[in-house]
Amino acid sequence: MTNTSTSPHRAARAPRRDAAENRIAILDAAISELNHNPDASLETIASAAGLSRRSIYGHFSTRDELVAELNDRGIARVTAALAPIRHDDARVALALVGARLWSEVEDVRVTAQLAIRGPRREIVAEGLDPVRRGVLAIVEQGVAAGQLRTDIEPRTLARLIEGAALSVLDEAVRDDISHGEGHRLVILVALSTAGLSWREAAELIDASPELALEAQPPASSRLSERSAGARP
Amino acid sequence: MTNTSTSPHRAARAPRRDAAENRIAILDAAISELNHNPDASLETIASAAGLSRRSIYGHFSTRDELVAELNDRGIARVTAALAPIRHDDARVALALVGARLWSEVEDVRVTAQLAIRGPRREIVAEGLDPVRRGVLAIVEQGVAAGQLRTDIEPRTLARLIEGAALSVLDEAVRDDISHGEGHRLVILVALSTAGLSWREAAELIDASPELALEAQPPASSRLSERSAGARP
DNA sequence: AATAACTTGCACACTCATGTGCAAGTTATC
DNA sequence: GATAACTTGCACATGAGTGTGCAAGTTATT
């Protein structure tokens, strides 16, 4: 396998820059191909990346290794997006969780589902644990402040809110919802699940400029900007 | 393939009863094995059914045919459970949709997800269309009666409610939620998504005896009651 | 321009699953 | 108890995907 890291010793020459780019191209292609079909072959991924199957093995010794790296990057992305969320009003914080999740995962829904429910789910769950703790903390804060429902155990409620947000992603697949509408829906659903009536949710959103679409930080960018198209 | 139907002509003898039982055993085993691992092989399914792989081909000419029949039965089950739902109060009707869905799909969550999102999704969607129309009709009725939220388009809202119910199923996988708790949660989540606050939901539930766990019709029974255990 | 770093194409070994053919058993049904 | 209806085990063909070795190319870097 190609050694991309800067070896401490014995580097007759530095690794080539284009190799690193190809590595990114592979990851990128893998994201979109696996999102299209979770069982996509390396052949498919390679050609979407504009490379030969053989050369994938120059970057990843195994299919599993490739998938694992994809998961790791996804986890890092989500963690980075959700960890900094903090707000006095737990309801606003939860709405923000939904919104950030939406913008990060929007274009990798299928892969995300697979990561969460597929064979690697335990490892992924472990990686996602800090995020989950964060959401749980928000819920507990909200319950303590009397802002959230108390008819569902905080632990369960936290999961349900995550799940509700993800289900918006799923519906978005079918209806091809716009970025803006997805943003709006995911916030509404998060607040509804948290226990607010739809009118309360509307009030809260009106009163909270930080929930506006324009107030959101840009999603951590994709690895590269090429549209992954295979060429014959 | 074995001809289970009563042929009009040329039946030297009636098909054997145990063959029909085995067919059911295969379907049953397929349900639970595929729910455990959506890529389970026929070998796995066969041995879970207590049969040899070879004899599966006596009942289904193809793996696809087996899966297709599974889907058809699932669709029929869900349709049968949801179609008769009717109630003056759309909110109660939606809660019932959630509850019935829960009891029908509870033990086949993974398979259900696969059916809805997997390679057969289009065919499944077609089969599920009547159910979806039904839910949509309830939502429209509720909007017209001023019982439901109006900040989300009925079509979308209908989907979101379905999705919310399904996400309870997902959470149930992790937490190993009891039948009763699942019933309660799915109703709460459906009502929340429909726009009610958690206190309004509680009031409605209190006032609606038909939502009680005990008031539910039994789930259309599984094909057989054997626990699907493979024997070496 | 020399050379190490990559990519490629091909051949090959391997695994795993599907689907068939057939002969030899069992077993329900008549 | 005769017989058709099933089941089984085995051998075999097929196909798809993964991972490796290697020789022959390209290309970035020095």
TrEMBL record, chains A, B:
Q: Which InterPro entries match?
A: Homeodomain-like_sf, HTH-type_TetR-like_transc_reg, HTH_TetR, Tet_transcr_reg_TetR-rel_C_sf
Record bears the keyword DNA-binding: yes
User: SUPFAM superfamilies of this UniProt entry?
Assistant: Homeodomain-like, Tetracyclin repressor-like, C-terminal domain
Q: Does the keyword Ligase apply?
A: no
The UniProt keywords, alphabetically, are: DNA-binding
| Domain annotation HTH tetR-type: ranges | 20-78
Domain of life from the UniProt record: Bacteria
Which is one GO molecular function term here? DNA-binding transcription factor activity
Q: Which Pfam families match?
A: TetR_N
DNA-binding region, residue intervals: 41-60
Q: Which Gene3D superfamilies match?
A: Tetracycline Repressor, domain 2
Protein's recorded name: Transcriptional regulator, TetR family
Source species taxonomy: Bacteria, Bacillati, Actinomycetota, Actinomycetes, Micrococcales
